[in-house]
């Protein structure tokens, strides 16, 4: 595919639009579930579709995204040439091959953002082999789809505050962002990257419990989902520690403490500690394939 066929001009660095808005072109390389969520988030946040490019392995997938969002599709090499910021959203296992394909085409003034679990900025920088190339690592999560993502952002060796700010501009409209040292990213991946899955797992188990207690599935589902939303909003908005919020539900000799005793007896807390440790360890392993 040529730039003529995408109808987009070569990359430019931060041209000021009328009104002073920075005009940066962003390419999402490997637009699967997370990549698509980011594209839709950037568009919801007001980024013009003309400033967003996607790449996909299958032509059919590229066509689907161009039709759905009005963004242009490109090859990986072309995206490297035409976008100021390259966001890599392939699976960790596909990262080495993507970087090998990109390496001859990435100019040193690009910002590369890796969103893959376990892949370090050093892994990306070493395989691209471009001296001084800024690389930022971001771990986000699927609530990016509803603008409630938790995205943790870390600078690689050559990434400056300005590069972190550019990454935040992309991820902040779709949720909350924090800056963390890269040494914490495997733990972050275990907590907030995978975190939504643990909550879904708990909700699924509690719906089953409702069935056990004789409730219709739809009723159990509605009761637990709304309780989860209510609890999440209280956690976020009250500023209270979860222990305090739990204590407020737990009446002396009441129902909640009977349930808590069973959770403790079955080692749910210990299971969560072990589970997140396993996720952290798996994140560490992913860069080695
Ligand atoms: N799913 C999740 O909850 C989260 C995922 N992540 C990370 O996001 C990344 C993507 O995950 P998903 O979106 O779930 O995976 P996905 O499989 O839906 O998307 C990856 C896409 O990359 C494409 N691809 C692979 N190699 C390519 C290449 N050389 N050129 C162009 N396209 C290529 C694949 O065809 C696929 O469409 C992973 O690295 C994962 O660790 C991060 C946070 C949360
Ligand atoms: O399960 C995974 O490997 C990805 C990374 C974080 C969430 N999902």
TrEMBL record:
Top-level taxon: Bacteria
Domain Pyrroline-5-carboxylate reductase catalytic N-terminal: 25-118
Biological or metabolic pathway of the protein: Amino-acid biosynthesis; L-proline biosynthesis; L-proline from L-glutamate 5-semialdehyde: step 1/1
Keyword Oxidoreductase assigned: yes
Gene3D superfamilies documented for this protein: NAD(P)-binding Rossmann-like Domain, ProC C-terminal domain-like
Stated role: Catalyzes the reduction of 1-pyrroline-5-carboxylate (PCA) to L-proline.
Catalytic activity: L-proline + NAD(+) = (S)-1-pyrroline-5-carboxylate + NADH + 2 H(+); L-proline + NADP(+) = (S)-1-pyrroline-5-carboxylate + NADPH + 2 H(+)
GO cellular component, one term: cytoplasm
Name of the coding gene: proC
Family per similarity comment: Belongs to the pyrroline-5-carboxylate reductase family.
Source species: Actinocrinis puniceicyclus
GO molecular function terms noted in the UniProt entry: pyrroline-5-carboxylate reductase activity
Protein name in the entry: Pyrroline-5-carboxylate reductase
Annotated segments matching region Disordered: 1-21
Binding-site positions, NADP(+): 29-34
Binding residues for NADPH: 76
EC nos: 1.5.1.2
Gene Ontology BP annotations: L-proline biosynthetic process
Cited NCBIfam families: proC
Occurrences of domain Pyrroline-5-carboxylate reductase dimerisation (ranges): 182-286
Record's subcellular location: Cytoplasm
Enzyme type, top EC level: oxidoreductase
Annotated keywords: Amino-acid biosynthesis, Cytoplasm, NADP, Oxidoreductase, Proline biosynthesis
Primary localization class, coarse: cytoplasm
